[in-house]
Prior knowledge:
By secondary structure, this protein is of the alpha/beta class. It has three domains: 4-95, Rossmann fold (3-Layer(aba) Sandwich), CATH 3.40.50; 111-340, TIM Barrel (Alpha-Beta Barrel), CATH 3.20.20.20; 354-451, no CATH class. Helix content is 34%, strand content 15%. The protein has helices at 11-24, 45-51, 71-78, 92-95, 124-136, 155-164, 176-184, 199-203, 218-230, 248-261, 272-275, 282-296, 313-329, 354-361, 405-424; strands at residues 4-9, 29-34, 60-63, 82-84, 111-116, 141-145, 168-172, 189-193, 207-210, 236-237, 266-270, 300-303, 370-374, 377-382, 385-389. It has an eight-stranded parallel β-barrel with strand order 5-6-7-8-9-10-11-12, surrounded by five helices. A four-stranded parallel sheet has the order 2-1-3-4. Strands 13-14-15 form a three-stranded antiparallel sheet.
Amino acid sequence: MSEHILFITGKLAEKQLRNILEKMQPDFTYTVHQLGLKVAALMTADMIARRLTDTFGADRIIVPGRCRGNLEALSQDLKLPVIRGPEELKDLPMFFGKAAQQLDLSRYSVKIFAEIVDAPNVSVEEVLRRADYYRKNGADVIDIGCLPSTDFPHLEDTIGALKQQGFTVSIDSLEAADLLRGGKAGADYLLSLHESTLWVADEVAATPIIIPERHEDLASLDRAIKIMQAKNRAFIVDPILDPLHFGFTQSIVRYHQVRKNHPDIEMMLGVGNITELTHADTAGMNTLLLGICSELNINHILATEVSRHACRSIKEADLARRILFAAKEHDMLPKHIDPGLMALHETAPFPYSLEEITELAGQIRDPSFRVQISAEGVHIFNRDGLHSATDPFELFPKLQLENDGSHAFYLGVELARAEIAWQLGKRYTQDQALNWGCATANTEITVDLHSFKPAGTTLKKPSTTSK
């Protein structure tokens, strides 16, 4: 007879727990019991004792890994073994000796339109170069941005060259003449038409993106939707996302209202008004905006990389849409799926406590330096002792490297990395570059620091020791 296990959890984690257990195909039977609180991590042994009125015939009980309190006393009270599971649900298969669940990030529902905002002032060759860069970073559509009152004599040549290279293309202008030219040149999408310019869509095969006639005028948007539906034409609706302090919150409400009124239409959200016009790191902004897209079933975004601080926006949006698609598909929070959007921080930055590092340092019997970090700061140690500081400059006088320039250079680099990791809350591993996720380019540069060795010196390679 197989073992029966009772899993106790909270509201947010219940669906994910059930999905993981189902996919595990365990060799035990189980019951999942939601204890009536939202966050499982807030659970305590006393709370379980008060709220659990039925053990469902279990042979043992597994509670969340962060559950606080005396489980031994709870076990005696319930007359059943009560055990903490892993801190993270995704590690549950490993807890039972099975492979961890790997989510598929190859799929997504949101198309990324990457805009070349100043196309009239850019050569065809440069447009192709930028388009290739955007496509490599995840863009599905290259958006050719026109400029007000600016001639664009090579518009047709630009679209033709892109189409010849296999790109899907949109033309972006508020001038009907530009959109008509772009559509006739082979553009796949028109950004943007409104109620008074819908006639352009009758002249070309391109799919129009429809906006309100006047800002916030949802009545005109509704009328345009009805016109396109009556013609049985494909279209996409963009209610317009506004910058922060210039109507952002109200514009989110507007998107929600349009989705409520039109549950089945295709929609677009232009993320650039937030990522470009807010001086903050864009990875979090892109993730939150793609989360809104996921909840409202918005399957198209318009993104830009004009400002230098937004120079990874396409790449971030690409990863965010994949993570959120997987999270939605599996009824789980967008956590512990992929670390690429956590450029500045880490879920578990300090794997060792100062106490553990001190214990390890006491076991070292060779002169090679080890560098580690804990929540308390940066630590460097060898057989001669352990030194700790939050400023690496405080450590140098204690290391006696005045006559060993090569070794001093190496440790300078490592201590600088360690200090940055400690300050930000990132994982540091000696002899490895810090991981900045998708905030850096798709290139890996490896430098052998030991090759920087002045003539006549001998460098001992500092070893990395894990406990």
